[in-house]
Every structure is written in structure tokens, then in C-alpha cells.
Design goal:
binds nickel (II) ion, 129 residues, alpha+beta, elongated
Amino acid sequence: RVHFNAAHRLYNPAFPEDWNTRTFGVCANPNYHGHNYELDITVTGPVAPETGYVLDINVLKRLAEEKLLDHLDHRNLNLDVAHFRAVNPTAEHIAIYCWDVLRPSVPADLALRIRLWETPRNYVDYEGR
Ligand code: NI
């Protein structure tokens, strides 16, 4: 589990202001709002006989830091992360983004699951489909 703080605004520029307000409520407020995101990264697969690990936790931690947290933590997702200039930064889209970014760096024989907590009561899971 890793953690990041970030600001965002839910907004679809293809639709008028009143549609965005109706659809996203206060999440569409123009001056952004913040979340304390918790990101659970789960890998599953065989235990390697030579190490006794599925994957060295330090390798996974470093991947999360370099590939995700360095770019997401204490950022404005809409403005600072190129991907979200064109993609509405909902929890769903952030989870998919995290999976897509990590997948190429996780050994191909291991399954990858992302659980993104946007609030302590609200999470989304993504496993690549
Ligand atoms: Ni929000």
C-alpha cells in the first residue's frame, strides 16, 4: 500500500457547464479539491524457489515510487499529469492509469491488481479488464 495526495476536478469539456454540475456535483467545482489516495498494488503468482518471494517487495515499492508517486503525489492531476489533460481523473480512470503504467514493469507471469481508495469509504479495483 502506498499513499499520495492529489487535487483534481471532475469535468468533461465536451459537455456544457450545467451538465457537468448535474453529473459531478461539487466534484466539478472549478478550483479543484483534494484527496488522500491510498493505492493497494497486489501481485499474484508463483513463489520463486530461489528467493521464496512472488516479487521482492522493495522492487515493487521502488516501481510504485518511480512510475507513479513521483508524478502523482502533491500534484494537480488535471494540470500536472499529461494523461489527465484529456482524461477525466475519476477514481476509475486513475486506477486504470496506475495499472497501465505498472503493467510493463511487473514480470509477465504475475497478475497485477490495483485498488485505489479515493476516500476511506470508496475504492475501485482494476485488474486489466
Ligand atoms: Ni474528488
